[in-house]
Design brief:
The complex is a heterodimer of chains A (501) and B (318). Chain A is α+β, with helices and mostly antiparallel strands and 501 residues long. Chain A is built from 17 helices and 15 strands. Chain B is built from 11 helices and no strands. Classes of the chains: A alpha+beta (501), B mainly alpha (318).
Chain lengths: 501, 318
């Protein structure tokens, strides 16, 4: 793949750590055609600047490359015919930049609900809003005896804002469509012109449950762009934070899914264990979610010996408490009756959307950014990547349960072998472009930054894994029962805030 | 004679007031015990009262397209269930409405309340409400025959369908412990769980699989307060019905002294606490069955009711 992209256009200097190639229009079209023939090339992200579009690709061997098309005429050939996962990314590009995706399979607006003070907020000259917006055209579903069940965007619980629209025939769902964008805060606009420290705080607030992963991806991208090497102790501490975050979220979601499937006991126990991790994080790092602890150049707090002991005790408590719960899950036939076969994702479907994380790993795709392309300190640590084949809610639960065990072992290895030394290096103010892939608990976060000469942000694009998982959730829910909707939804647990930007 | 009638009327009034207090208390008690069993602190015992008061103070929003049925239903459902709760002897059997306290009539009142709820849900035209009505009717279709079977078995064993008579019959020692009665108790308990939208059929956190929650989605303010209160009354009716038939001990009979109703009140409180703990334990330990398995659940309840009737007729014949 690297050779093919290199043959399409020249490499742009100053892009780290993977190459970026500038393509012309013909080469970009050749890339779209080639993507149709190479199912193994995964589209990791697609984002824009004011007059160009970038896409990030990854092949089976874990090689990552960025391809760029300059579009001075404000239009670019869409990737959506070859990669359906590109549809929403390109709709967002149209809403934010006004660049027109040609032959886009679904040209409806996406993030823009005509509720912003301006249209095309990231374009050179944002025009005023239309004033009298047309209603959003939902996908049609026609037939005898169909009825539409709308949920949200305001839910009766603390759930994030989404509008879910079911078309059902009795208890069977024939179409499920989610409308997102209600949690849009304009983070991509807000970071422009700020220094990396201020921008890191904004990016860390993209999605509270994966704040460590987003902060880490941003920090790695900035470090790649500026050529900063974080101290070894900081690198290991970052991995510790990331694993604690993964453990806490998997525990919470495992419990919530079991609760949804009808065993509130497991939910209550998992909530207690998750709390144990949050309390240890607060004691060791001063924040329950470890927000703003990963910063460009290293980490903001060092780990004391007592705090390491505290975390070790919490890890032991989770190990002791969680394994019996997993055995309980495995032993409850009535519980598996709900989860087995519910919300199935086919392997080829997940491949076409490029879904990573436990959603992809539950249907046989073994992608994990910690292994491929891999980043420090994971190559030095021993861990397995659990994979299941079935693709249903049960497979997602079992993958996540096994990931908890792997993460516990990773965190223990890190605590054992934590190197000494400083935890923060200075980040030079210089121009550059950087890309980072970091495995969050949902899947890989892809963050791309371009820095100006004075070290401020010219453009930053954090792509949450949920971008590629929401469409699979919609596909998985179609043809299932209305009563299984909450269970399916929980077993994916896609984020709105992380996606809405 | 007149003194007796006045006494009965007084007891009836007391009962009508008692159920209004006892129903939210029982609901609050179950949530409290359930939370404690799962290691949480749980809401305070009086939380259901606070919730009802809060809802009563709030504005009631009514959809434009609904008919009178939608706004009338909360009042009708509440009064139907209040009347039904007044019929079941709780602490004393000598109530003014005792002649009307027939088991079949009681089942009828519960069914009326359910049908009204379903009609009101269909009246809104909302998709999820209609789905809830369909699910409720699925429960009703399966629970109806099972309920009648269980009642038939119990009534045959106790020679009456009148609740006070049954209680008095049990108290006089006319019934020996029988397997058939145990099975009938199982059937009635299963139906009570289904009818009250409790685990394993439904329950808190059921989300899109909810049965009871879907039909009340369009209600707000005082309407929702009445619907919620009616749900609490329904739980109390089922609990006190089972207590009245199977453990009537402590209940004040007509002709007992003036102190008997006081003892009866204490006994009733103890029985409801026992029922609450049992319900909370069931809810914590069971797995919610899916809507797909609802038919099987109803089938098992029907099977239990029929077995009770068959065992009884065999043992009576022998």
């Amino acid at each position: 793949m690297l050779d093919f992209i290199a043959s399409l256009g020249p490499a742009v200097p100053g892009h780290h750590p993977v190459p970026r190639h500038r393509l012309d229009r013909e080469a970009w079209i050749a890339l779209v055609l080639r993507l149709g023939e190479e199912p193994g090339w995964t589209l990791l992200g697609e984002w824009a600047e004011q007059d160009r579009v970038h896409c990030c690709l990854c092949d089976e061997a874990g090689h990552v490359v960025v391809a760029t098309l300059d579009c001075p005429e404000g239009r670019f050939p869409s990737l959506s015919l070859a990669r359906p996962g590109a549809v929403r990314l390109e709709r967002a590009i149209q809403d934010l930049f006004g660049l027109n995706a040609e032959a886009l399979t679904d040209p409806r607006p996406w993030l823009d609900h005509d509720a912003w003070p301006v249209r095309l907020p990231l374009s050179a000259a944002p025009p005023p809003p239309l004033g009298n917006p047309e209603p959003y055209p939902f996908l049609p579903a026609e037939g005898e005896g169909l009825h539409v069940i709308p949920f949200g965007p305001v839910h009766g619980t603390v759930a994030e804002p989404t509008h879910l629209r079911l078309t059902a025939h009795g208890e069977t769902i024939v179409r499920f469509e989610a409308r997102l964008g209600f949690a849009h805060r304009g983070i991509e606009s807000l970071v422009v012109g700020r220094g990396v420290e201020a921008a890191a705080r904004l990016v860390a607030r993209l999605s509270g449950d994966s704040t460590v992963a987003h902060a880490l991806a941003f920090a790695q991208a900035v470090e790649a762009a500026t050529g900063t090497a974080p101290p070894p102790r900081a690198v290991w501490l970052r991995a510790l934070l990331a694993e604690l975050e993964r453990i806490a979220n998997h525990l919470g979601d495992f419990g919530a899914t079991c609760g949804e499937a009808g065993v509130p006991f497991i939910e209550a126990e998992c909530a207690l264990l998750r709390e144990r991790v949050a309390v240890a994080a607060e004691a060791a790092f001063g924040h329950r979610l470890m927000m703003d602890r990963v910063v460009p150049g290293g980490v903001a707090v060092d780990l004391t010996a007592e705090a390491a002991h505290e975390i070790d005790a919490a890890l032991q408590a989770v190990r002791d408490g969680f394994l019996p719960l997993v055995r309980l899950y495995d032993a409850r036939e009535s519980l598996q009756d709900r989860t087995v076969g519910t919300g199935c994702v086919a392997r080829d479907q997940a491949m076409r959307f490029g879904a990573g994380g436990f959603v992809g790993r539950a249907c046989g795709l073994g992608r994990d950014a910690r292994r491929l392309p891999g980043y420090a300190p994971y190559p030095e640590l021993a861990f397995e990547i659990p994979v299941a084949e079935e693709g249903d809610a049960d497979a997602r639960l079992s993958v996540r349960a096994r990931e908890v065990v792997e993460s516990l072992s990773l965190a223990e290895q890190i605590l054992d072998r934590l190197p000494d030394g400083p935890v923060l290096a200075a980040v030079d103010a210089c121009a550059g472009e950087g890309l980072a892939l970091v495995e969050s608990f949902r899947g890989e976060v892809m963050t791309w930054v371009r820095l100006a000469e004075d070290g401020t942000i010219l453009r930053c694009h954090p792509r949450d894994p949920s971008w590629l998982q929401w469409p699979l959730l919609e596909a998985a829910i179609e043809r299932s029962a209305v009563s299984d909707l909450s269970l399916c939804y929980r077993s994916f647990n896609c984020t709105c805030a992380g996606h809405d930007l | 004679m007149i003194v007796q009638a006045i006494g009965a009327a007084f007891l009836q009034l007391l009962q009508m007031g008692l159920v209004l207090v006892a129903a939210p208390l029982l609901t609050g008690f179950v949530s409290q015990v359930r939370a404690r069993l799962m290691g949480r602190q749980g809401p305070p015992l009086l939380q259901p009262f606070r919730d009802l008061l809060r809802l009563l103070r709030k504005e009631a929003v009514v959809q434009d397209e609904t008919s009178w049925l939608f706004t009338a239903t909360p009042f009708l459902v509440f009064s139907t269930l209040w009347l039904a709760a007044g019929l079941v002897p709780t602490f004393a059997s000598g109530l003014a409405l005792a002649p009307a306290a027939d088991l079949v009539a009681l089942v009828g009142l519960l069914a009326v309340a359910r049908v009204l709820t379903m009609l009101a849900a269909l009246d809104t035209g909302a998709g999820f409400g209609a789905l809830g009505a369909v699910r409720q009717s699925l429960v009703a279709v399966l629970a109806g025959p099972a309920m009648l079977m269980a009642i038939f078995a119990v009534a045959a064993a106790m020679r009456s369908t009148s609740l006070p008579r049954m209680a008095e019959f049990v108290l006089s020692g006319g019934v020996e412990p029988r397997l058939s009665l145990a099975i009938a108790l199982l059937a009635l308990t299963m139906l009570a769980l289904a009818d009250n939208a409790r685990m394993p059929v439904d329950g808190p956190g059921a989300g899109s699989a909810t049965i009871g929650g879907a039909t009340s989605l369009e209600y707000s303010g005082r309407h929702l307060a009445l619907i919620e209160a009616a749900g609490m009354l329904r739980l109390l009716i089922h609990a006190s019905l089972i207590a009245c038939i199977f453990v009537p001990w402590g209940m004040a009979l007509p002709g007992d002294g003036a102190l008997a109703p006081v003892i009866g009140l204490g006994a009733f409180a103890a029985k409801m606490a026992g029922a609450g703990v049992a319900l909370a334990l069931t809810e914590v330990l069971s797995t919610r069955i899916g809507i797909r398995r609802l038919g099987e659940y109803g089938g098992w309840a029907l099977m239990a009711g029929m077995l009770a009737a068959i065992f009884l007729s065999v043992s009576l014949g022998a």
